[in-house]
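Cross-check.
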Amino acid sequence: MARLEINRSGEMEVFARAVELGGFSPAARALRMTPSAVSKLISRMEARLGARLINRSTRKLTLTAEGQLFHERTLRVLADLDEAESAVAASISPRGRVRINSNVPFGLHHLLPLVPRFSALYPKVILDIVLNDTVVDLMDARTDVAIRTGPMRASQLMARKLGESPMAVVASPAYLARHGVPKTPGDLAAHNCIGFNFTRHCDKWPFVDGGERVWLPIHGDATSGDGETSRQLALVGQGLARLAHFHIGGDLAAGRLVPVLEAYNPGDLEELHAVYVGHGGQLPSRVRALIDFLVAEVDLRSAPEPRAWV
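Predicted model, tokenized:
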């Protein structure tokens, strides 16, 4: 039990520093100790080991044969301790690759603008970013984090909510000038509506009419596979689109898009979540760092200035 009360690694560090610097006084200055404290500590080590380690003289310090052996082993032990501490620090400090899959609108207007800030905070984390509106299987696609829109369904995936955003039917001023502004949901039958072409999407839009929610089918001469394409089509005057404010907030603020049928807006919200495989609640620090960062930094209420490739 007596050995547990002795800081042997600390003693080894003092001994190694004295040998490295060639004396008790320089070692004491480097370690912020007194020369007498260094001398006493090494004398105590020698007494415990039953061997002289250092030959002292007024001019220099030399190692005995036993001291040379002990010094070699001391350097090895201290190197192992440094390696162990570095390994633990590496497991805690986020580093490595994180693959994130995001829908195109969120990726363009919210995720990508945040990448420089995240990289500044976690310079050893590499973000592998894929943008598409396909719902991927995280395991098959080797994806660490996926951004999902809509209410979360029951699954084995874990999820953190990033926010929610209201929906709106919008069109460009040029389109409305040519085709007129729809006054009621029934007027949509005479308008070009931009729908989605992926199988999980319903080609009907919800409205509240007479206090009841109704779903009206839409028709048009163009569909898209992602929200950014729908936004671009609306911007060039192709037709009406129904999109979330987090995606078109900048367009609404700048007047590039105009909301219509707001009196019939059902007030539904587009939810966004970061989903991931939980592994019993254990996550690599690099993945947890990204998720915590997104939860803290994403603000779907903001109206980002979007990319307008028109």
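Residues 2-92 form a domain with the Arc Repressor Mutant, subunit A fold (CATH 1.10.10.10). The two ends are 77 Å apart (CA to CA). Passed to J.P. for a second look.
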